[in-house]
Amino acid sequence: MSPPRRRSVSNRHLPDNLYPNGKYFQYRNPVTGKKTSINKPLAEAIRLAKAANAKLLPMLADHHLLEMITGEEAMKVRKLIDRFETEWLPERNLAASTLEEIRIKLERYRKDLGEKLIGQMDVLAMAEYLDQFSNNAYTKHRGLMIQVWDFAVAKGLADRNVAEMTIRKREKAKVRQRHTVEGVTAMLEAKTTPDWLKRAIRLALLSLQRREDIVSWQRAAVDLETNIIRISTGKTQNYAVPIHLEIEMGADLRQVVTECLAVPIISPFLICYRPVRRRRDQMDAKAHWSAVTEDYLTKHFRIARDKCKAYNDIPADARPTFHELRALGAWLYQQQGIDQAYIQALMGHATEEMTEYYQEGHEKKGPVYQRVQAGLKL
């Protein structure tokens, strides 16, 4: 908790945490930060403030005293995060990948801040904690902290949202480059690219689906007899109208799907692999022992991309990732004359503008000349 505000000449005679409030006074709890009006004469207000300080100030150094005095567990940040996770998160209908990302952050907050009293997390303490993160990470952590403290205020555990009072930073523009046909071809032809990853790359390029949907796509979704593959895209499950697709497979998409089904692994997933070692903790963390997790896919895509030197002319932090395959696929569909409405539906985009954004940046653009007339007569 921050120290009491600097005393002015007019209230220097008052004890710590007691401040004038119009005709009467106000006491600021040094543990919780909450303010309480004391509608009493000066002498009585001073006596009450000193008595409160005598009980509360030692708790800033040892919160166990609070538990001894009140007989209740002190409200720590750990308990706030526990309640946020159990009472607030389940109501959000978030995608599984988003939930996992949030829970990883919450676990970090428990580790870093869990033993602090909620009242000790004032604006200064919150700002100092968030400042350890780089620009884009800062923005994401600050956004989650604002939600946590909104919950704290709504539940009466805090009197203000200290996270919202920290500086809002603008995210840096993404510098990730687009994939090229040559770059992806190099990855697909390289002996260093695992077969399961080659299938995942082709499946993403042809279906335009997101990483989380590629790794969770079930074999049961395929009907070769009717040439249909179904998918309910994960990111849209919390939309008012979730997106469910029945995709008529072209020859190339059918080919890669057939190859996925022919893999000699008893797995519920189209994209699967046989781990070299099966550690119990890793197996328990996955839906199936053969499943490819999102992080595993991202990691091995990056390794394969760099091993075949497909994009060595681009700085490492700007080289395209697995996600950018959607953009290249959307552009290739456009180049082959596929109607934009079909591409938008396949990508699960709400607007045509979003689809166009993905399709941009794959052609080297020179100057665009506009033909005009200069027919002035003198």
Q: Which helices and strands, and how do they pair?
A:
Layout: E1 18-21, E2 24-28, E3 35-38, H1 42-61, H2 64-70, H3 77-88, H4 96-113, H5 123-130, H6 135-154, H7 181-189, H8 195-207, H9 211-216, E4 222-223, E5 228-232, E6 244-248, H10 251-262, H11 280-284, H12 294-307, H13 325-335, H14 340-347, H15 352-359
Antiparallel strand pairs: 1-2, 2-3, 4-5, 5-6
Helix pairs in contact: 1-2, 3-4, 8-10, 8-13, 13-15
Family: Belongs to the 'phage' integrase family.
Pfam families: Arm-DNA-bind_1 (PF09003), Phage_integrase (PF00589)
GO molecular function: DNA binding; integrase activity
Account of the 3D structure:
With 378 residues, the chain is mainly α. The chain has three domains: 12-70, Double Stranded RNA Binding Domain (2-Layer Sandwich); 77-154; 181-277 and 289-359, Intergrase catalytic core (hpI Integrase, Chain A), CATH 1.10.443.10. The protein contains 15 helices and six strands. Strands 1-2-3 form a three-stranded antiparallel β-sheet, with helices on one face. Helix 3 packs antiparallel against helix 4 (96-113), helix 8 crosses helix 13 and helix 13 (325-335) packs across helix 15 (352-359).
What's the short version?
With 378 residues, the protein is mostly helical. The protein is 45% helix and 7% strand.
